[in-house]
Design goal:
By secondary structure, this protein is mainly beta. Helix content is 6%, strand content 33%. The chain has a 5-stranded mixed sheet. A hairpin with a 6-residue loop joins strand 2 and strand 3. The radius of gyration is 15 Å and the shape is elongated. The protein starts with a strand and ends in a 10-residue tail after the last strand.
Length: 103
């Protein structure tokens, strides 16, 4: 059986209040954090994508947050950096239902 490879995909940066991440920690202080996806390679049927990132950075405004996504962070470009096209992904697994996992 071939070894699986996990590739970290940088999909979106979000600025939010620190206490959103850890309850009551650094209340009122904004921090910028990355949003990640994972590409699983080495599966005989094809690549698997874990979490997809947001369709666009503006969606974070619904939660009072600011999102940033460069052209490089677009899902298609993150996959292409590992030699994978979107239509080659055989399965998508969302680990949780958040606004930043809606592609």
């Amino acid at each position: 059986m071939p070894a699986h490879e996990l590739k970290l995909l940088s999909l979106l940066d979000v600025e939010l209040e620190s206490s959103f991440l850890v309850l009551a920690r650094n209340m009122g202080i904004k921090t910028r954090v990355p949003t990640w996806g994972i590409l699983i390679l080495g599966n005989p049927e094809g690549p698997i994508l874990v979490d997809t990132g947001a369709r666009d950075a503006e969606i974070m405004q619904r939660l009072g947050m600011t999102g940033w996504a460069t052209e490089e962070m677009r899902l298609e470009n993150q996959l292409a950096a590992h030699g994978v096209a979107v239509d080659e992904v055989i399965a998508v697994l969302h680990t949780h239902c958040h606004i930043d996992h809606d592609v």
